[in-house]
Description:
Layout: E1 3-7, H1 11-14, H2 26-40, E2 48-52, H3 62-65, H4 81-91, H5 103-109, H6 115-131, H7 139-151, H8 161-180, E3 187-191, E4 198-204, H9 215-236, H10 244-259, H11 293-320, H12 322-335, E5 337-339, H13 340-352, H14 363-367, E6 387-392
Parallel strand pairs: 1-2
Antiparallel strand pairs: 3-4, 3-5, 4-6
Helix pairs in contact: 4-5, 4-6, 6-7, 8-9, 8-12, 9-10, 9-11, 10-11, 12-13
Amino acid sequence: xxxxxxxxxxxxxxxxxxxxxxxxxxxxxxxxxxxxxxxxxxxxxxxxxxxxxxxxxxxxxxxxxxxxxxxxxxxxxxxxxxxxxxxxxxxxxxxxxxxxxxxxxxxxxxxxxxxxxxxxxxxxxxxxxxxxxxxxxxxxxxxxxxxxxxxxxxxxxxxxxxxxxxxxxxxxxxxxxxxxxxxxxxxxxxxxxxxxxxxxxxxxxxxxxxxxxxxxxxxxxxxxxxxxxxxxxxxxxxxxxxxxxxxxxxxxxxxxxxxxxxxxxxxxxxxxxxxxxxxxxxxxxxxxxxxxxxxxxxxxxxxxxxxxxxxxxxxxxxxxxxxxxxxxxxxxxxxxxxxxxxxxxxxxxxxxxxxxxxxxxxxxxxxxxxxxxxxxxxxxxxxxxxxxxxxxxx
Length: 394
């Protein structure tokens, strides 16, 4: 002493003893017992500080967290917007950035990024700028680096015209529902370029870091997620497996709304244990279910009701805005990626068509209206803290 002892991933040796599938583990439990013994052996005035880190505090043995041992718990959340801006300022000190890069806007767009993610973002953007022979890192470099980190590397893959058309309508369905629902997060962009495991993506960025999720907001999120599937059925009178991840997202939201957040009118303000703990991570193999089979059926019915009502809502929105959906899909087939501002200009042009006026429109779309522009490029997948409704790869 004086000394600081830091134990990373303490849950690897500090899990609850005798729990989980397979029961106890002699070596691990002996290690835990020795740690507990050593922590009790310090003299009152010895200058030894023991610090441990874990992302699973719920599986730790109670003997570790009682007073006199690890009795002070500090929760480290992901950095908020102001903190992200300061972290970006630190990592860009040695990087020449262009005047078009606004760190506060970049911080707002990187919801859910950790400090390491932000450092990686700056490094990737600098590498891209260097490969292109630029003297300064520009906003376009940060945008592409963000896509690569969150959505995966761009794939050079040729997709036939009919599949591209399906993907364009699928992503157009997500994007149009997002535009039509004011309660959901603002649309950032939509693309049909393959990246990672995704064939297309619709990206939304929250205006601020959210801590509370309202029922109406969750229903809007579900409607956006179902927009792709609804668009496929509306246009092609058929369905593909491209909505697999969307359905997982919607089902997870519905289950939590009914079972954890008390958002079911029929079941009321109650929570229902689902026994979803992993038995290998220090939980008991046999977990009791705290509701009857009749209640289980009611839970299923309420979840199905929420999902079907939300799907019908998305169906109504897209059916009543079919011309916009067609126009958006055609634009995606030509441009492959559209920003929120480009979509606004596209729809503004449509609204002015009937009275002889000409709104601002994308030049390339004006020239190739209705064509299936064949191209091969790359698209985004999902991101930390961001919302992405993507077309799954077969």
